[in-house]
Write a structure and sequence with these properties.
The protein is mostly beta strands. The protein is built from 1 helix and 14 strands, in the order ββββββββαββββββ. The strands form 4 sheets. Strands 1-2-3-4-5-6-7-14 form an 8-stranded antiparallel sheet.
Amino acid sequence: MTNCFTASGPTRSVGTAAARTRLAELCAGSLGRLWAGPVDAIVGAEAVRDWYDMSIPSQDSQVHGSRSSSATYAEVRAPLLNGGDSGRNSWDLAAVTVAARRDSYSDFGAASTFQGGIEVRPTRSLLIRGSAAGSFKPPTVLQTHVDDSASDALDFRLVDPARNNELITVRHRRAGDEQGPPARARPSRVS
């Protein structure tokens, strides 16, 4: 790996008591050469600390939560076939890309996601690409740390315009879900 980058710093939300501190390290470069050209790779890691603190006195509601998370990831792109002359006039006729990521959360658990793709370029101006991947999105700190509460819709002054602005008197319930399932997807694409 020849190029490495480090990024860090806090992020603070204005208007709410929320903050995020992040540290990330990323290295990219060539792993070597195959018969068709260089094998490029990127590897990285990051650590994040989220904090959320909110009080709504009029509703006697409080939300307090924090989370630490970390991730490691890697991606490799390898050419399979090379077209044209060697040097500036050559191009990858076919290449494969594979990637993996592992995320861990202090309050939720961990997940691994993967991606794979293939590129076919029969001419310089035509590229056919296909890929398949998995994704993962954990619940937010707010979603996992919200207190259970219930209140009348009157607290929000909801009205029904079809009934001459009559107040709506339904009840709603807000509840956190510390152990709820994460959002997952398995997209694939050909372009």
